[in-house]
Amino acid sequence: MIKIKELYLYPVKSLAGIKLEKAELSEFGLLNDRRWLIIDNKGLFMSQRTTPKMATIKTSLKDGNLLLSHQDKEIKVPKATSKNKFMQVTVWKDSLNAQMLSGEVDDWLSEILDQRCHLVYMPKSAERQIDMDFAKHNQYVSFADAFPILLVSQASIDDVNQKLETPVNINRFRPNIVVDGIDAFAEDSWKDFSINQIDYHMAKPCSRCIMPSINQANGIQDNVKLLSVLNKYRKFDKKIKFGVNILYKDSSKVNNQYITVGDAINLK
Predict the structure, then answer these.
(1) Closest Cα to residue 212, out of 158, 157, 262?
(2) Closest to 216 measured CA to CA, from 29, 15, 4
(3) 64: confidence class by pLDDT, cuts 50, 70, 90
(4) Which end of the chain has fewer CB atoms < 10 Å from its terminal CB, N or C?
């Protein structure tokens, strides 16, 4: 049986994630996944690609509040309200309005990351359209790179680790859903499937950048040769592919629905 083995939520793009037993769904993907974003003074998104230290900032959600922590420091992020100012931010080729949150939080992050930065929030009114080569009109994504949900299989990471002298943690690939019960990279060929009566569609395999080479525990790009190994047998169309990007078949049906570790995945 194919089933969900692990679930992960990443409230702030490129900061540490949260391992879950149960995840609520939203039209953007998992509820609260990448709804917050760190930007530079020009409004451009920041990520581990250029600021790997971001991996060392931990996130948690308590009573609907976002908490950030780093070593012995912790700060509570105020919730966005209708009174918060908006500013234009850019994520890849997309520009949209996001809500500014707190100068105190901005100062806290700037000190840790050694550059001036700001934390912003994506409100429900944001309409960041998913690439319409893969999605329908009015299908939206959060501050994730391009798609609402990333799925990988345990067998795939096991296959990679067998080729490495030092195995790596699956968190380097930052999946939302980890599945068990299939052969390595079988997810590449999936088309449609369902979990708890919600239908999903595999949009495309996920192209990988430098981020999997960053140790998520210390924020340092290490020399375990992960990318060189992947380059030898997971390179297609000049890009390393690992995991798959998935979409809802009908995003209007997902609010107040849940997925849970152990749930069965039914291929169609």
Answers:
(1) 157
(2) 15
(3) confident
(4) N
CB–CB of 126/94 below 8 Å?
no
Determine phi and psi for 234, rounding to 5 degrees: -125, 25
Beta-carbon count within 10 A of 230 CB = 19
Tokens 């107040």 identify what position? 256
Whether the Cβ atoms of residue 38 and residue 117 lie closer than 8 Å to each other: yes
Round the average pLDDT of the chain to a whole number and report it.
96
Dist CA 18 CA 159 (whole Å):
24
Mean pLDDT across 220-240: 93
Q: Which residues of 183-195 are buried (b: 16+ CB within 10 A; e: fewer)?
A: eebebbebeebeb
Model confidence band, residue 112 (pLDDT cutoffs 50, 70, 90):
very high
Domains of the chain in start order, with CATH, are: 3-267 (2.40.33.20)
Does position 224 have pLDDT exceeding 90, yes or no?
no
Going by C-alpha positions, the residue among 155, 160, 161, 157 that lies closest to residue 181 is 155
CA distances from 199 to 48, 160, 202, 248, 256 (A): 32, 29, 10, 6, 15
How many whole angstroms separate alpha carbon 260 and alpha carbon 25? 11
Instruction: Measure the CA–CA gap between 192 and 27, rounded to whole angstroms.
Output: 18
By CB atoms closer than 10 A (0-12, 13-18, 19+), residue 53 is middle
